[in-house]
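Two quick folds needed for the group meeting slides. Do the first one here.
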Amino acid sequence: MARAKSEERRGEIVRAAVEVIAERGYRGASLGSVAERVGLTQQGLLHYFPTKEALLVAVLEERDRWDTGGGSRAAADTWRLDLLASLVEYNAMRPGIVQTFSALLGESVTDGHPAREFFTERYAQVRGEMTAVLRAEFGERLPSGLTPEQAAPLLTAVMDGLQYQWLLAPESVDMPAAFRSFLTLLRGPAV
C-alpha cells in the first residue's frame, strides 16, 4: 500500500514537472517550483527525486510511456505508418506535453545538458524502430528507391520538425494533415 502511494505521488510530481518545464524550460524550472505545485517542500520532493536530473529523466520516460500506450519502448515493435499518423493526431491534442518534449530536446543539444544522453540514445532507438516500420511497409526499398535505413532519419525528422512548426504557429500548421501528406510522399505515386 505504501509503495502504491509512493508511486502515485511520484506520478503527481512528474506531471507537475511537465507543466513547469513547459512553462519555463528545463533551465528555468526549479525543484522548488515543482514542489510548490504539488504541496511539498523542496526537501520533501528530494525524497522522491534526489536531483533535478533524476526528475528530468522521469519526465522524459513518462512521455515515452504515454506515446507507447503505457508500455515500454518495446511496445513500439507494433508501430505501423497508420499508427504513427494516429500518434501525430494524439500529440496535436496535448500541446503541453509536446511543448515540454520540444523544449527539452532543444536544450539537450548544449554541452553538459542532463538530457543529452537520453535523447542521443532515444534517437538511435527511434531510428531503428522507424527502419523496422518502413521495412514492414515497403520491404527493402521504398517507392523512391531509398532503403528503410536511409528514410528512417527523414521520417523521424518530419515528425519532430512538424511539432516545432505546429507549436510556433498552430493556426497555420495542421500537424496531422501535414504528416499524412508526408506519408503520401513516402508511398509514392498512386497506381
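Then this one, please, same format:
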Amino acid sequence: MAANEGGPIRVGVIEDHPLYRYAVANVLSEARDIELGPVAESVAAFASSQEPAGCVVVLDLKLRGVTDSQAVQEVVRMGHKVLVVSAHAGQDEVLGAISAGARGYLSKDADGDDILHAIREIAAGNSYVSPTLASYLLDSTRPRAGVGSVLSDRERQVLSLVAAGERDADIAEAMSISVRTVRSYLDRIRDKTGRRRRPELTRLAIEEGMA
C-alpha cells in the first residue's frame, strides 16, 4: 500500500551502511502507522524490487552506483517521495537534494523519532528539513528576494533567453543589441540576484516563471 489516506505509510530504505540500514529498518518496523517496504543498499537494488509508486523512501546520498542528487532524481522519477538522511549535511548537499526533488532532509544525528516525524510530514504532503539545516534554505532564497521587481524588463528578457540555452551572441541577435550589452545585462543580473554561473541563472529563471 502506498503512502495515502486511510492506510499505513509505506516506507522504503536505501542505505549502504549495513548497521545503519538495519537500525532504520528496525525503527520503521516498530512504528504502528508504518509498513516497511524494500530495504536496499543501492538505487539499482531498490529499483529491482519494483515497488509501486507512492512510498516514502529514506535515502542516503553517498551510495554505490547512482549517488548524491542523481540518486534523489532517480527515486523521484520512480514516483516516490524522498527523505534524505545523510551524514553529509552541508549547504551544497542540502540544496542539491532539495533541488533534485527531495521532500525532506535530516542529518544522521537525527534520532528515530525525528525520522518518523519527518516521514509522517512528507506522507501528509508536506516537506520537512531539520531546524539546523533549514537556515541553508533560507539563505538560498535571500539573494532572489524580490527578483521580479529588481530586474528590469530587458534583464528579465536576457535571463529568459539564458534559460532557453541561448549563447550571448544569439541573445544579442534576438534583442538587436551588442554582445557587450548582453554581458553588461548579465553582470547586472548576477549582482542583483547573487547567482553567478549560467546553470544557477537558468534555475532562477525557472523558479521565477521566466523560462
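Slide caption for protein two: The longest helix spans residues 179-193.
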